[in-house]
Design a protein that fits this description.
With about 200 residues, the protein is α/β, with parallel strands linked by helices. Helix content is about 45%, strand content about 10%. Strands 2-1-3-5-4 form a 5-stranded mixed sheet, with helices on both faces.
Length: about 200
């Protein structure tokens, strides 16, 4: 029985992250660290959505810069009535962005520079964090959460969601993904094989 508990503590996140067992589990599987703060991230996104005028709340979409944030939104978002995340990462592009497309985006997991480059108007509305003050990708690399209007790509006939491609998101994430040509190629192939609905 003791062997099961010791093994479980190293492979399952069953201890607080700031405990010695939690630190040991994170050391053995760094993915645990990246999941710390997901419930707080989603609650913050929901609070930002709820702070918008009532008539605008139904027009909101959530653009996530990586699969972790998108997964968090899709896992914890239903309890808040949040829409599924929009993302160009991995297979998330298959889900598209809804019909009709959102008019307002809550944007998570991107840098301020990315937001400035890709949107005509953005306002900083919040930050990511977690109750354990554990530093991870979300708190270190892109802690800001924005509310943005139409992306600059709208109006171009690019076929990309809001004019922002998976490749653009991949380039934004390049410190984490390096030069992953296989991922870039699969995103490029995906757009040819399963193009997004054109924006009107």
């Amino acid at each position: 029985m003791a062997d099961v508990l010791v093994a479980g503590s190293m492979v399952l996140p069953i201890a607080p992250p700031d405990s010695s067992w939690g630190r040991m589990a994170i050391k053995r599987n760094a993915d645990f660290q990246e999941e710390i703060g997901w419930p707080e991230l989603v609650a913050t996104v929901a609070n930002i959505r709820d702070s918008l005028p009532t008539q605008n709340q139904a027009q909101v979409g959530i653009l996530a810069g990586n699969y972790g944030e998108a997964g968090a939104i899709n896992l914890y978002g239903p309890r808040y009535g949040l829409p599924e995340a929009i993302s160009g990462m991995n297979s998330f592009w298959l889900r598209g962005y809804g019909n009709p497309p959102p008019q307002i985006l809550i944007v998570v997991g991107v840098s301020r520079e990315f937001a400035k480059r890709n949107f005509a108007m953005c306002a900083l509305m919040g930050h990511t964090g977690n109750m354990y003050n554990v530093e991870n990708e979300e708190t270190r690399s892109h802690p800001d959460i924005f509310v943005c209007g139409a992306p600059l790509g709208v109006g171009r006939s690019s076929g990309e969601p809001f004019g922002i491609s998976g490749k653009t998101l991949l380039e934004e994430r390049s410190p984490n993904y390096g030069e992953s040509s296989a991922v870039a190629e699969s995103l490029e192939c995906g757009r040819r094989c399963y193009p997004y609905t054109q924006l009107q």
